[in-house]
C-alpha cells in the first residue's frame, strides 16, 4: 500500500517519522517544500503537489493548521480534489469545524473517492512517540484499511460513525483541556500574587485530586517560563476554542466558561505568544 502525507508541521513530522519507521512507503508534500528534505533522507518520496501525491498513492493523509489551510489544500490549484477518482482514499487529520469537513467529504465522495476524518488528540511529544489518540469517522472500510498506519501513529483509534462526529469530539476534547490550562494559569498567577511559593503550589496540586499530566507538565512550563519550544502552538489551541465556541452557537448551548477561556487565549495571542506553547496562556493570566 502506498501512503501519502500532506502537511509536515509539528504533528505531521512525528506522524511521518513513525510511518517510515514502521516500514510504510510514504510520499510527502508540504507547502514549504524545504521541510520535505529530512524525510527524503529517511527514505520518503517527494511530490510537487497534493494532487500528485493523491495520484501516486492508495491512501493519502493530511494534517494542516486550520479550516482555511484545509480548504486551500483540497480545493486549491493542484489540490487534493484534482487527484481524486475511483479507488483513491483520503484521510484528513487536521482539527477543523463540521461544515468544513462535511464539504471536503462531499467533494471527495462525489468524485468516487473514499473519505475519513481522523483528527488527533495529542501534541508534539505524543506524535513523535506514536502515542496519539485518533478519532475517526466516515468510511468504515477506509478506517479498517488505515489500521497499520494508525498503529504506527497512535496508542488507540476510535471509530465514531458519520463524518462530523470526530470533529465534534475533537473540539470537545480541546475545550476541556484548554479550560484546565486556563484554570491552572489563573491559579498560579493568584498564588504568586498572594506570596505562595509556586514550586510548592505545584507539588501540592500534583498530590491532590486535580493531579494529571497536563497540570504537571504545563505547571512547570508556566512557573519556569518555558514557552518557546511549542508542544502545541497557542494560536492553534485558540483556533480550536474558537471552533468550539462557534459549534456551541449552532445548538444554543451556553459556554460561559469556554467563551471566557477563549478570550484569555486571544489575549495571549495578541500579546505575541501565538507561536509559543499553549502554556504561555499564563502570560495573559498573570498581569
Ligand atoms: P503546525 O506545526 O503549525 O503546521 C501547520 C501545517 O499546515 C504546516 O505543514 C503548514 O505548511 C500547513 N499549512 C498551513 N497553511 C496552509 C495552506 N494554506 N495550505 C497548505 N498547507 C498549509 O501545526 P501542527 O502540526 O501542530 O497542527 C496541525 C493540525 O493538527 C492542526 O489542525 C492542529 O490543530 C492539530 P508550512 O510548513 O507552513 O508551509
Automatic annotation (TrEMBL):
Residues 164-284 form the 3-hydroxyisobutyrate dehydrogenase-like NAD-binding domain. Transmembrane segments: none annotated. It comes from Capitella teleta. Keywords: NAD, Oxidoreductase. This is Cytokine-like nuclear factor N-PAC. GO terms for cellular component: chromatin. One of its GO terms (molecular function) is DNA binding. SUPFAM superfamilies: 6-phosphogluconate dehydrogenase C-terminal domain-like, NAD(P)-binding Rossmann-fold domains. Coiled coil: none annotated. The keyword Oxidoreductase applies. Belongs to the HIBADH-related family. NP60 subfamily. GO terms for biological process: transcription elongation-coupled chromatin remodeling. Residues 2-161 form the 6-phosphogluconate dehydrogenase NADP-binding domain.
Amino acid at each position: 500500500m502506498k501512503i501519502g502525507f500532506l502537511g509536515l508541521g509539528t504533528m505531521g513530522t512525528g506522524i511521518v517519522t513513525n510511518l517510515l519507521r514502521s516500514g510504510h512507503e510514504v510520499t510527502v508534500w508540504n507547502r514549504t517544500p524545504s521541510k520535505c528534505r529530512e524525510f527524503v533522507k529517511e527514505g520518503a518520496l517527494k511530490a510537487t503537489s497534493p494532487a500528485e501525491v493523491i495520484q501516486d498513492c492508495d491512501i493519502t493523509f493530511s494534517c494542516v493548521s486550520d479550516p482555511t489551510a484545509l480548504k486551500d489544500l483540497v480545493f486549491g490549484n493542484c489540490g487534493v480534489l484534482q487527484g481524486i477518482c475511483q479507488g483513491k482514499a483520503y484521510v484528513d487529520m487536521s482539527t477543523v469545524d463540521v461544515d468544513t469537513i462535511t464539504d471536503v467529504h462531499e467533494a471527495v465522495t462525489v468524485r468516487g473517492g473514499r473519505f475519513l476524518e481522523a483528527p488527533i488528540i495529542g501534541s508534539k511529544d505524543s506524535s513523535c512517540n506514536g502515542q496519539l489518540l485518533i478519532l475517526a469517522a466516515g468510511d468504515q472500510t477506509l478506517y479498517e484499511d488505515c489500521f497499520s498506519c494508525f498503529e504506527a501513529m497512535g496508542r488507540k483509534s476510535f471509530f465514531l460513525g458519520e463524518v462530523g462526529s470526530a470533529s465534534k469530539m475533537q473540539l470537545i476534547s480541546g475545550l476541556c483541556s484548554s479550560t484546565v490550562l486556563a484554570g491552572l494559569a489563573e491559579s498560579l498567577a493568584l498564588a504568586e500574587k498572594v506570596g505562595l511559593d509556586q514550586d510548592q503550589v505545584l507539588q501540592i496540586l500534583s498530590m491532590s485530586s486535580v493531579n494529571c499530566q497536563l497540570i504537571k507538565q504545563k505547571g512547570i512550563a508556566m512557573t519556569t517560563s518555558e514557552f518557546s519550544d511549542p508542544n502545541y502552538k497557542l494560536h492553534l489551541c485558540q483556533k480550536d476554542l474558537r471552533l468550539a465556541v462557534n459549534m456551541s452557537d449552532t445548538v444554543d448551548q451556553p459556554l460561559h466558561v469556554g467563551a471566557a477561556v477563549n478570550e484569555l487565549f486571544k489575549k495571549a495571542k495578541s500579546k505575541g505568544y501565538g507561536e509559543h506553547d499553549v502554556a504561555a496562556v499564563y502570560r495573559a493570566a498573570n498581569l
